[in-house]
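The protein record passed on for reference:
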Amino acid sequence: MRAITRPRSLAAAAVLTAGTMLLAGCGGGGGDDASAGGTSPGEGKAECEGLTSFGDLSGKSVSVYTSIIAPEDKAQKESYKLFEDCTGASIKYEGSSEFEAQLNVRVQGGNAPDIAYIPQPGLLKTLVQDTGQVVEAPSGVGENVDKFWGEDWKAYGTVDDKFYAAPLGANVKSFVWYSPKMFKENGWKVPTTWDDMMTLSEDMAAKGIKPWCAGIESGDATGWVTTDWLEDAMLREVGPDVYDQWVNHEIPFDDPQVESALQLVGSILKDDKMVNGGIGDVKSIATTAFQEAGLPILKGECGLHRQASFYAAQWPEGTKVTEDGDVFAFYLPTTSEEFGQPVLGGGEFVAAFADRPEVQAFQTYLSTDTWANEKAKATPGGGWVSANKGLDIANLKSPIDKLSAETFQDPDAVFRFDGSDQMPGAVGADSFWKQMTAWITGQDDATTLGNIEKSWPSS
């Protein structure tokens, strides 16, 4: 995951030119009329270098459907202005909190958007296989993903050996939140190994501070937080190859290797000495909203909270989220050096349901480092990052966003997408959540994993 070091303008121009040349009839879903032609409205403008290859798209529009809603939608729309100004096309943005439920309905009903930002590879696979309406990505988009992301990310947008969707935004889930002030006052150092982290936890407990606080309540999605815990443990205990086998059901869900990883999670979440700081006992984890679970850190009632980078938005207004501030985060340490530095995360993927020139042009724009940097600059308040290796970290304003980008770009990082988001819906968005909730409230390891295994669809 090493960063691209070429100047952004040159890299963008080269990639955009290659991508748009490929739009002219060579894209995966493109037809004979895939090239817009004409003179681009951005011709002669320095800021439009590379974008002029899309031709004249004046009067054309592209509809975008997404789960990204206010206030986060503002920065998304701002990041499209360069494309609109340089091509003449307009982007019609629609965000919805009902996205996952409504997208399939719209596609099946013949009312599909031109482009959708899909946050689960499993949902993308379902749409491709069940509807036949998702259009393969243009070849230029594939080349951009090869250049700026790599094989792991490209695989998440690939179904049945055909590439459909490039990554967009991303988040790091392998983070532990803490109070730099509390650490300084107690002489604690950020742990770099799992053993160091457990020693730190025991030190906290000895001083009368419950080391960890946690909460998994999330309405119909209650339990997803514990699935993230198990996924991170799998990456650290058995490595990315076995993790992939588990996610793809090439080994059973209740394989001994999975049970070992669950025991590792249980050494924290099911130990009364370790949890649940400022909230209650172990069972209180099941009824504590995930949005509120880390807040006891601000009161000194717990020391550590494992949660994704997007948790930065949950701290109360005025909280200083910096390395020397009220709260910050560190990388969840590994249990050994055998598997490098595994990073669990999530993100969105750009899927198209049309192959008109303006749609393919916008797809290509979103797959470049140009867009990633435009989006970073359009998000001055922070709360967004991409795994695009052409993203200039200096364009990110939030320290936690910069830490996330550095984590993605670390050459030793081994990224894997959220496992439950890749599993069949009957497992990843149902039994996995429910059984892990039952586990927190007292169900044993073997029963928990066995019940999830039984729920896996037979075909």
